[in-house]
Amino acid sequence: MKTKTLQAHLVTTIMLLGFLFSGNFATAQEKNPATLYIYGAVNTRDDKGTVFSPVVSVNVENNTLNVRSRLATQFQDYLKNYVSGEMGIDVRVDVTLSGPVDNRQKVEIDRQNWIKRTRETYKYNIIHTHNNFYFTFKE
Asked: I need a labelling partner for 31 at 20 to 30 A (CA). Which of 22, 55, 62, 126 fits?
């Protein structure tokens, strides 16, 4: 009698574990694609100018916090290297970003306000990246 009860519990436990794990694997494989928008700015080393990137749209397969974090890091590195390498401008180490977010209009308005504030408050020269600013995200 005990053997049959034990077997029944074991089968039930295995079925429950299988159900739970199959649900977790399905959830882990689900994708959450999104288009995210990001831009950034970096001050020149002499603090007389700020270089602004355009708003860039990036399609991601899985919109998670980890993906957004990697996107921000890659964009920050690209902007800093682009401004110092392609544009030949000596820049500060820190790059300020806005995004990644999924609302392009919010990012565009934020960028316009940031440019205006930089020009009026800090009296910095506003510099825009060139037309060959092509950031690609490696997911």
From this structure: 55
In this structure, the strands spanning 49-52 and 91-101 are unpaired
**Model confidence pLDDT, tens digit, residues 35-66:** 999 999 999 999 899 999 999 999 999 999 99
Nearest to 136 by CA among 74, 87, 67: 74
Entry pTM: 0.76
Contacts of 32 (CB under 8 A, 6+ apart): 62, 63, 64
Q: What is the band of 31 on the pLDDT scale with cuts at 50, 70, 90? A: confident
Measured CA to CA, the distance from residue 86 to residue 79 in angstroms comes to: 10
C-alpha 39/C-alpha 37 separation (Å) is 7
Gyration radius of the chain over CA positions: 24
Nearby residues of 138 by Cβ (< 8 Å), 6 or more positions away: 74
- The residue ranges of every structural domain in the chain are 1-30, 34-128
Query: How far is the C-alpha of 57 from the C-alpha of 127, rounded, in Å?
Result: 20
Task: Please list the alpha-helical segments (H only) found in the chain.
Answer: 2-29, 65-85, 104-121
